[in-house]
């Protein structure tokens, strides 16, 4: 009975919806992480501290307003107009930086955040480009890969990323440094993705059979392994350059900008 239920029930649903199972697993992991964070991770900036910070900002605004009013009263009409413009500009800037505090970060932190955002965008756009291109039908000189085959390619890519993170990245960072690692990663991605039009010459399954999958597997493994050198390096830079800042806030803004 159980076997019949699995074969005609759950497994049938997963067979007819090939993307359901991986997305269900990812969603379950996300829910587990959310529950762990909510119940076990203490708040790094509790409510009282947030209220005190907000009150300090408001007090600074009021103090600045009083100073500008005193300057306007003492210096006359012409200079008062200048002070009024200056006060307006100050309040606009203060309001903007209160809503977007990353604008006040040092330039080194902003550059590291931009590098991380571009790196994440590059990873996502590359994978999406591969997924879209390799589903073009064989009748249109495409590979015509099925969702299941693309899923296997993604699994092969995950193996490359895993090997990089476990074996190569920590050792190469110690031997060569972070800048060398990110240079290696970007170079590796370009080396295997730029020849994609040449891979297309092997599109015909009747002529090349399994051989046509060899360059695709090598490309997926290499490009994910190469990206494994880039993203961690930019995250290290963000945390190193944000010395003295609220790293939780800095990383939150970095991930938000990367998502954008």
Description:
It is a single chain. The chain is mainly α and 260 residues long. It has 10 helices and no strands. Helix 4 packs antiparallel against helix 9 (213-241). It is elongated. The two termini are 49 Å apart.
User: What separation lies between the terminal Cα atoms?
Assistant: 49 Å
Helix content range: over 70%
Largest β sheet strand count, sense and barrel closure? none
Average residue pLDDT: 81
**Which structural class should the secondary elements be placed in?**
mainly alpha
What is the chain-wise order of helices and strands?
A: HHHHHHHHHH
How is this fold's topology laid out?
Blueprint: H1 2-16, H2 20-40, H3 47-99, H4 107-133, H5 147-176, H6 178-193, H7 196-199, H8 205-208, H9 213-241, H10 247-259
Q: In short, what is this structure?
A:
The protein has 260 residues and is an all-alpha fold. It has helices at residues 2-16, 20-40, 47-99, 107-133, 147-176, 178-193, 196-199, 205-208, 213-241, 247-259.
Overview features:
260 residues, mainly alpha, elongated, 10 helices
């Amino acid at each position: 009975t159980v076997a019949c239920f699995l074969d005609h029930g759950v497994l049938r649903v997963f067979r007819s919806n090939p993307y359901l199972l991986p997305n269900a697993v990812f969603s379950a992991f996300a829910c587990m992480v959310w529950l762990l964070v909510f119940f076990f991770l203490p708040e790094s900036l509790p409510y009282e501290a947030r209220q005190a910070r907000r009150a300090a900002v408001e007090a600074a605004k009021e103090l600045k307003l009083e100073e500008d009013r005193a300057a306007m009263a003492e210096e006359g009409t012409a200079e008062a107009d200048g002070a009024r413009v200056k006060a307006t500009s100050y309040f606009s800037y203060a309001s903007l930086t209160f809503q977007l505090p990353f604008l006040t970060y040092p330039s080194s932190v902003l550059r590291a955040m931009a590098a991380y955002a571009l790196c994440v965008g590059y990873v996502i756009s590359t994978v999406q480009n591969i997924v879209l291109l390799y589903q073009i039908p064989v009748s249109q000189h495409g590979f015509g890969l099925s969702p299941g085959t693309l899923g296997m390619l993604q699994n092969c890519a995950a193996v490359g990323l895993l090997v990089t993170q476990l074996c190569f990245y920590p050792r190469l960072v110690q031997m060569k440094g972070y800048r060398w690692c990110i240079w290696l990663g970007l170079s590796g991605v370009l080396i295997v993705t730029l020849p994609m039009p040449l891979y297309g010459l092997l599109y015909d399954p009747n002529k090349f059979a399994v051989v046509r999958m060899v360059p695709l597997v090598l490309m997926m493994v290499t490009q994910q392994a190469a990206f494994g050198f880039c993203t961690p390096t930019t995250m290290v830079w963000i945390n190193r350059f944000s010395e003295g800042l609220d790293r939780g806030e800095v990383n939150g803004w970095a991930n938000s900008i990367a998502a954008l």
